[in-house]
Structure formats: structure tokens, C-alpha cells
Amino acid sequence: MPGRAKEASRKAEKDSKIQPSYNPLANLCIIQMTDMEAPLATPCNIQICEVTCDSFRIMWDMPPQDTARATHFFIDLSRKESSDPNRFKHRDVPTKLVAKAVPLPMAVRGHWFLSPRTDYCVAVQTAVRQPDGDYLVSEWSQVVEFCTGDYAMEHLQQLLDKAKGTAGRLLKFSVFYRNQHPDYFSYIRKECDGLMCPSLKDSSGSHGSPINGKLQGVFFSCNTEFDTGLPPKDSPYGPLRFQIPAGFLLNPNTCLYFADFYCMYTAYHYVVLVLAPVGSEGDTFCRTRLPMLDLASNPFLTYTGPQQPGEEPVYCHASDVILEVLFTEPVHLDRGSVEQISGHHQLMSLTTANAKKDPSCKVCNISVGR
């Protein structure tokens, strides 16, 4: 019995010194949980590229371990004029875009109705969605500013297609005209030797039109009254009218481009056209930016050459839209005449200087911004 007791005592002492078995899976779980809870680095070196009128691509730098475990990106976008570019209600409760993590650069489109040629601010966070649904998030990146682009050719083609449905039948006309106040013509004669020089197109109409603030020209009208076939008696621009024979601006040596279609909270619409002499600086500018129209066959403004010897060319304009024709070269007053218009009042409310397009009109808006 004493021998057996001694042996049992030795066995118990040996068992007490045995170490617990190693469980690699359990340790791995502990390591993974620690990694999931480790802070995410703040995104840095934000880069914006491939900017269009309604989209852009964004990328930034982050450590490889964050790239491997990030499940979502938070993107906050606002117009530059906003005093508070990040409008999250809570640090990890986004009120703007939550996107699943994808390889960078990431395309951003369709999530906001981006406006063309508009300054924006953007900031990003990286995030890891946890099993309970909460997010582990990084700090916000620095705020980066960028500007969206003009309408591309495809967008202007959409606008052109809409304008075609509104143009109406073609009416004959014989002169282009430009109304201004007496001070304007006095200045042109005294300071410019009678030459009306091109000036920069203002920001009226569609915000994305490529000519706004970039193309210079002299604006003319050509619409006529239904009953007389002559220019209207009244004008929103002034009581003096410069008239020039249509053939001086519209002829086989000029190119015709479509530039815009818009309204100003009214039932009638404006179509902006550009007339640029072939090979001119204006022609070069428009050729890659605006849809070119056939002089002899388009719904807005046409030139038909003489069919027989002795005949005069025929000029026609659309009847159901107001045409604004931008001629890209200087025009001398000697080419036409300046006369007082016969109307008794000027319709100042119809001026279009820097006028804003109605963003709710279903007739003249397209889906890529206003």
C-alpha cells in the first residue's frame, strides 16, 4: 500500500506540470479581432481625375493593411460655397454616399445631380463594417476642391435633339439686326472707329454650354413678325437698331454651330447659334466643342443659294423659338445702317444678360445638370 500511494503521488505531481495544448485557431481569432479594431489611417493625397460635367474619378493613398480590410468608403461632396463641407450628423453615421470599397480610382456619377462648370469640395473616409453593423472609420481626409466640366458633344447633341422639336416652321428673313442704346453706338463710332468688336459670351442659358465665358462674338437677332415679315418694332435691348444684310453673316463661307437651348421660366425658348467664318479662330474653337449644322438643311437658320442665274439667295429662320446668333468676327457699322425702332416702349424684362435657365423645364433640360 505505501508503494502504491507513493506512485500515485508521483503521477499527480507529473500531471500538474503538463502545459495546456496549443490552439493556433484560437490565437488567430484573437489576432484578427485585434486587427479589426486597430485604427484606420486617415486617407491622404486625394486625387481627382477624368472630370466631366456630371462625373469624376477619385483616388487616395492608404496603407496596404487598410486597403485589405476596408469594406466601405464614405464620400462627402458639396458645393464650394458651403461653409460646412462635411455635413455628417455623427462621425460614423454618414448622411451622404456610402460606397462599397472598390479598387481605386473609383468613379462617382449618378449619386448626385452634379452641375456643369461648378466648384465642389470633396472629402473621404475609409471604413470597416463590423459584425454588429457599426462602422470602424478613419478620420476625414483633407478637403479637396475641383470644378466640373462643360457639356460634352454628346450632351449638346441631346440638347439639340430637344431643340429640334420646338423650332417650328421656317420663315424667310433678309437682315440680321442688333439693338442697343444710343450711348453704345456713340462709343463704337468715337472709340472703336465704327467697329463692333467681339466680346466674351456671358453666363446666360445652360450652365454647361462650352461657349459661356470662353467664346467671343457679336450677338445678332433675325426673328421676324408673322404679319409683316420684318423685325419686331420693340426690343429689350435699346431703341436704336443696326441692320445688316443677311448674306454678310450667313453665306457658304461661314460655318453654323448649335450652342444652347434654354428658357427663363417662360413659355418661349431661346436657341443660341454660332456663325464663324471658315478657318477663323471662332471656327477652330467650335469645331471640336459644338455640333455643326448644315447651312442648307437644319431647323433653325438656313441659307439656300441661287437656283438660277439672277436669283437671290433665300434665308430662313425658325418661327417658334427666339434665335440668338453669335458672329465671331468684328462687324463694321458701314456694312449696314442704324435707325430708330418704331415701337413706343422697350420690353426690358425680356433681356437675357446672365439670365438663368429654368432647371425644372422638361422641354429644354437634359439629365446631366442644368
UniProtKB/TrEMBL annotation:
All residue ranges annotated as the Fibronectin type-III domain in the record: 42-151
A cellular component annotation (GO) from this entry: cytoplasm
Alphabetically ordered keywords of this record: Glycoprotein
InterPro entries: FN3_dom, FN3_sf, Ig-like_fold, PHYHIP/PHYHIPL, PHYIP/PHIPL_C
Annotated family: Belongs to the PHYHIP family.
Biological role: Its interaction with PHYH suggests a role in the development of the central system.
Subunit note: Interacts with PHYH and ADGRB1.
Name by which UniProt lists this protein: Phytanoyl-CoA hydroxylase-interacting protein
Species annotation: Channa striata
